[in-house]
TrEMBL record:
This is Formate dehydrogenase cytochrome b556 subunit. It comes from Salmonella enterica subsp. enterica serovar Poona. It comes from the Bacteria. The lineage of its organism: Bacteria, Pseudomonadati, Pseudomonadota, Gammaproteobacteria, Enterobacterales.
Length: 23
């Protein structure tokens, strides 16, 4: 559960950073 949550959070952060870079 912890690992899954971490992976999801990492994916979310990665996407947010990608969007920030795009903008």
């Amino acid at each position: 559960m912890s690992k899954s949550k971490m992976i999801v959070r990492t994916k979310f952060v990665d996407r947010a950073c990608h969007w920030t870079v795009v903008i």
